[in-house]
Structures are given as structure tokens and as C-alpha cells.
Protein: TonB-dependent receptor
Amino acid sequence: MLLFGLLNSSIIAQSTIHGEVQNTNGILLEGVNVVLNPTYSGTTTNTDGQFQLQNIATGNYILTLSYIGYKTLKDTIKVTNEDILRDYFLEEDLLNLQNVIVTGTFEPKVQLESSTSMSVLNADMIQQVYPQGTANLLQSIPGTFVDAAAGEIFTKVYTRGVSASAEDDMGWYYVSLQEDGLPVSLAQYSYFSPDLFHRMDLTTDKVEAIRGGSAAVTALNAPGGIYNFISKDIQNKFSGDIKISTGIQGENNYLRKIDAFVGSPLGNNWFLNAGGHYRIDDGARNTNFTFSKGGQFKFNLIKRNKNGYLKFYAKLLDDFTNRYTGVAAVNWNDPTPAYGQNFSSTSLLMPSFNDDIPNGRNLSQGGSNSFNPSKGVHAKDLAFGFAISQDLGHNWKLKNNLKFSTKSANWQTSISNAFVSLNDPLAYFISGADFPIGQVVFKEAQSGTEIARIDNSGTLAGQPIQYLSDGTLPNDAIMGTSAWYIENNADEWMNQLTISKKIDHHNITGGLALGFSDNSFFNQGSFGYVTYEPNPRMLQVTLENPSEPIIELSDDNGISNYGGLFFVNSKANVSQIATFLNDNWDISEDFNLDLGLRYETINHKGNKDRFAPYVQDGGLDGNSNTAYDNGILAPTGEKDHFNFNYNYLSFSAGINYKMNSNSAVFLRFSQGNKAPELNYYFNNFSNVPINKKGEVQKINQAEIGVKYSQSNFSFTSTLFWSELTNIGTANFEFDADNNSIFYTPILFNTSRTIGLEWESVYEPIQNITIRFNGVVQDPKATKWKIYDAAGSVDTSDDQTIDYSGNTLAFNPKMMTNLSSEYQKNKISGFIKWQFMGKRFGNVANGFELDSYSIFNMGAGYQINTHLSAQILVSNLFNSKGLANFYGANSFGASANGATKEYISANPEESFVVFPVLQRSALLELKYSF
Structure:
């Protein structure tokens, strides 16, 4: 009887909390997260905006309602023996200023109350962007310079003029690309950047982006900013999405993609989220192979308790993609396509073929590398980890996030696509043959059909070639390109531990960040004989002088000078250890002071093989008539070792004054550091001792900003100053005398940028939203010198050129985004205008890339409760804007060589540019449940 009484009393003492959630326009909101603390029980609103929490014991609670795009609402509730009915109205948060952010801070914080320059892209904004890669999405974030003209990878992303070492093959040099608070990749080096291992799909809930500022003390070796892709979290009911997409781009090239996501409670406060995608993409430009194919799978498993949570997560990425090279242009003042090429459709990539190229690392064992340009870059990433967050009592809190990943990136593609005239002896000597002079025959490799037969005997005396048959080569040239084979591998382990304690008005956080990465890098280049035309063909080339044996300058597929252009074989271990201390001090109800210190130590330890041409009569195969295997570079057995430490202290201090519940101003000063990446050792010190460590770059930034949030108008604005010092610069050069590629000595320079960023949203009338963001800035190369190698490794004619005071290259003085969005009942639509201002293509300020505009649009319709359709159009008016510049159209040329003097002396010379990707249209069908 006593047991029955106790149970009956318990049942009677439990109540239900239920109600309805609408926005201020009276529209019922589905999917609002409703959480009751301290029980941590939760649910989401249904299609009628209704929610219900059952079996709530008597007591005092806080009910929290959160929904992306709306201000978080908290309500104190006292539960007695009666059911409680509460209806709520959520106010729109146009810039997410009233929402909690987790990036660039050691504790979750409402954005309006933080002293950082932060932008947020929610799931709806992400779905408005045509799926062309991570960098392409980030163009919507104010103050972020993005070059995504090469496709999904080989992209550049930076902010506030902190850009000098962000090269095309390491375009994320200063910023951290993160997933759920940890870097996608710990190490960076040439052709191994984090965009290789990141793809977007329905598993992403939002993106938080911080420009400079507190990144100096909250990120591992990434003071330029953080772009954190946050995965979907707890789903309080079984739900999900399946999206099927089909699109057309360029000249009838197709994209097919399927995305899926599902989330569900599992009982006993366990929750599961899982999803991913698979795609087949022909690409925006014309190739004779599928440009991208593959996908990823992600999941997380969360256990929630009254004091926090434990989360297990994993990702499997297995993806093939490629990247575009430049297009030839003439007319320095108004670039137009040259040699029959097209800014919209030409790719100039090698066609698909299968070859086996000797592996310089193990020639004696007969080793070889399979090579097919259609494979592009095969990126694989297996990552798994766990995160924990627990309140320990007495105002102590512990967080830890640990991740292990194993990565590989295998490149099989072409690099460079320069014009090489048949009148240039380089076209024949680059084959590796001793004296390829006389009658040269070019056959189409695929069919074996002879295309042209020439006599090049006069080229050594500066005379033109003579055609000996009716056939000719397109543009009387071949393409200066290389069969580019790379093997990158990395095993990485990273962990971030924080412990915080609230003491009076202080929230003090200390912690330890660890990162360890074991890397191997192998790079081998062979020359490829390819026609110089919009749809290149491989060429089988032979020297057929009368009464002499036929000399094969290429193999049957058109590959020549096996492994003779360059050779790098290196291994390196990277360890990054950082300890940090942060004090978030609420001086008063309105004033908050944020002080952070970070001490970081980085160790690079590894070795690099010395190499020399493999010497054997007749080359590798012993046949003197096959010249293409005569110059293979191979290890000599000697290694150059390196073992260097980089230690530095960074700090950041910010103060935020909350003027009222809707507005605040902040001020922040930061001093960050950027240690060299592994490319410093891999790209330099060719066959010489690695006896000097790289310089740590210094980044000083000051910013003052204002934030304002109202129901129909919100904006943020930040005035900033940034200075980057100790910038090491070197050029990629080609010596025509000995057919070798080399990097020039490193010089150290300084840049400074002053600018104003802003982000604003306005709803003039119900159902229409206008967004406007951008940056105006003044980027300067305050101290800048370039090493001029005069086109050879011989240093006797070298000189240093001073460009101090010029405008900093590849930094526009203005970038803006303007959009208008419409949403009513079942219909939605938007149109966006992206403006990119003029930029100089080099620090010499010899060539200026013109400004351009891109318009994107979309429209959607809610067919029924579960099914919706959307159409997206990117680059609606097919802009021919130029995103990048590679200098003169000659093998081994660089952008820095196109000085004003060079352009004046060569007005008819062609040059290489990167046009933006052309128009693409996508139809999406999404089923939600």
C-alpha cells in the first residue's frame, strides 16, 4: 500500500507543458527546438507549430526556444500539479546577432555581446548556393576574398589583405577551415590544402566565420580567420531530408547529385544524426572525361545528460575531382581569348589516357606509377573522434574535442598549359633527347594518324620550322604541360581541452591544444606532348632523320622525359602544442572585457631526398632509340634533414559595450603569428642542405565595430587595420638552358591593409528581405622586393627589384554582395549580385584585372507538406570576369614577370588568365519527413 501510494503521488505530481509557436507575422513555425532545463528534455514543434513536453515533475524550470533565423527566447516556468499552456512569438534575427556562436570564443556567446567580427550562414542560405565547392559558398561572407575559378579545389580564401603566402596550391594559408571546431587538416603544403578534404551537403547546419581578431588565440596556427562548418545537432524527433539534384552547366555538361540526412532520438537521451551525398559532375568546362565523382558519409551519436553531453562522430570521404588551368588571352588593356579558346568553356586539360610512368623512387625494382588525367585528384579522408562537455559543479566546466584522421590525396593531372612554338628549340629538347634536330613527326596518340611532319633544323639558328607534309599542328605550337603525379599522405591526431571556472564576474578558461601530423610527399613530373587547341589531343612524337634509326621522343601516349622535370620525395612530422588562458570579464552589466593569451610551439622534423638523373646507356630500358626515358630523376641515397622549432606568444584583447538590448560596440586588438608550413622545406633547398628555418610571419590587427539588431533592420560594421610582416616570397621559374624548374631565393616583405566591412539586412515590407554586405579597403605592399632570376639558375645576372609602396596584389579595393529575397506561403525566390573590384595581378602593378559582376538567382515552391522544388542559376548573365592572372603565356613564366616594362615591350604577347566559371542551372527536389 505504501509503494502504491508513492507511485500514485509521483504520477499526480507530473504535469504537461504544451503550446504553440509563431513568428511575429502570425506564421506557425515548424521545427523549433524546445528544451526544458535542468531536465534537458526537449522536442520540436510539428507542422502546426505545436509542442508538448510530458511527465514534468514539480519545480522551477527554464524553457528555451531556438530556431535559426530567429532570436532565442527563454521563459521561466514554475510547474505545479496542473498542465501549463504557453504560446510564444519568435522575433526574426536577421543577422543572427541574438543567436549563440561557438567559433572564435572559448565559451558559447550571444553574437551581439561578443567583441568579434562574426558572420553566420544558416542552412537556408547554404541551400541558395550552387554546389561548386566550399570556397564558392564563402563568397557570401563580407570581407572574404575568394578565388574559386579552378573549381572545388585549388581555391584561395583570405581576408583583410592577409594574403601574401596564400598561393593557388595553398590558398588557405592563413585561415582555418574547420568542422565542428577542429581543423579539417592540420598541415598544409603544396597541393595539400584543407579544401581537398571538405565537401558540403545536408549534414551542415550552419557556417560561422570570424575574420582575424580572436582567431589569433583560438585557432591552431591560423591567425587570419576561421570558417567553421557546424554539423546538425540533436533532433528531438525522427526527421530528415532527401534531395535529388540535376543540373546543366557550360556546353551541356551535367551534374547529378543525391543528398540525404536523417536524425532521430534513440531513447534514454541518445540521439543519432547521419547523412552524406554522392555526385557525378561533368564540370563547368569542356573535358573528355567526368570532372568529379564521389561523395562522403558522416554521422554523430550524442548522449545527453543533465550536466552536458558526450558525442561520437565520424566522416568517410572518397572523392575524385579536378581543377582547371588557365586560358590564353591577348590585349593587356582589354583581355580577349586567344588561339581559338573560350573564356567560358575551354579547360586545356590533358585528355583521358592510361600510362605507366617509371617511379623514380624504385627504378631498380621496376616500379611505376599509373597515370590517367581523368582521375584528377583522388582525395580520401577517414576521420573519427569524440567530444565531451560537462558541468562539474561549483561553476567548473570541462570540454574536450579529440579527432583522428588518415588522409591521402593522389594527383594525376596536368600542370601548366603554356604556348610553346614549334620554332622554339624547347619544344624538342624538353623531351630529354640529346640532339632532337631534323625531321620530327607528330602523330595523334589515340589513332596513330600522322598529323604533321616538320624539319626543325633551322631553330637553333633562329629560323622557322619547315612543314614537310600537308598536315600542320594547330597554332604551329604544342602545349607546355606536365604529367603531374603526386602522392600525399597524412595521419593526423588533434585535441582541444578547455577547463573553465566562473569566479564572481570572471569566466576564466584555460586549456591545451595538441596537433600531430605524419606526412609524406612525393612529386614527379614528366613532359606531355599535347596539341595547343581548345580540346587538346595527345601527340606521339618521333625523330625520323633519313638513313638514321627512328628516335622516339615520346611514348605511345605522348608522355616524354619520364620523371625528368622535377622530383621531390619528403617525409615530415609536425607537432603543434599550444596552451592558452582567457578571461571573459563582465565589468558591469553592459561592459565585457575579453583577454586571451596563447603560447604555441611547433616542431617540423623530416627529411628530403637528394636526386640526380638516372644514368644508364640507352636510358632506363637500355634502348638508345627511346629518348623519353633518358632523364629520369631518382634518389642518390643522400638525404637532407630538418628539425626546427617555432615558438611564439599571441594575444588578443576585446571590449564590448552593450548600449541596449539591440545594439553594441566593440574594440579589439590582436597580435598573431603564422609559422611556416611544410612547403617551405619541400619547395626550396633543392639538392642543398636545409640549414635555415623559415621565418614566423607576424599579423597585427586592430578593429572597432558596431552591431545593431531590430525586427526589420540589422547591421554590423567594422573598421579594421591589419599588418603582415616577415612575408617570404619566391617565384616558380624555368631554366630553358638546362630544362630545369627551380624556385628563386626567398625575400621577406611587409603589407598593410585598412578597410571597412559591413553586413546589413532590411525587411521593408513583409515577405521581402534585402541583404547588403561588403568591404572597401586600401591594401598596400609597404615593403616589397622581388628576386629576378633572369630566367636561369645562373646567379651572375640576378637582381632584386623594389616595389615598395605599390598596391598589394590580388586584393580588390571593393567587394560587395547585394540580394533580394521573397518568401510567401509556398513560393520563394531570390536574386543576388556579387561585385568584385579591380585587382592588380602582381605586386609590380603591371597588369590589372578588371572588375566584374555575377548574378545568381533561384526560385522555390512547396508542392506539399513533404515535397518541395527549387531551381538555382549561377552566373545568370554568363559573366566573363577574370579571377586570376598567371603572367606571360610561356612555360615557367610567373605573374611577377609581367611588369609595366615587359608589357610595354611585348604588347602583342599572349598571357594566361583564370575566368570565372560560366552559367550553371540546377533543379532540386527535396523530400522532408
Summary: Helices lie at 2-12, 123-126, 134-138, 215-218, 426-429, 679-683, 900-905.
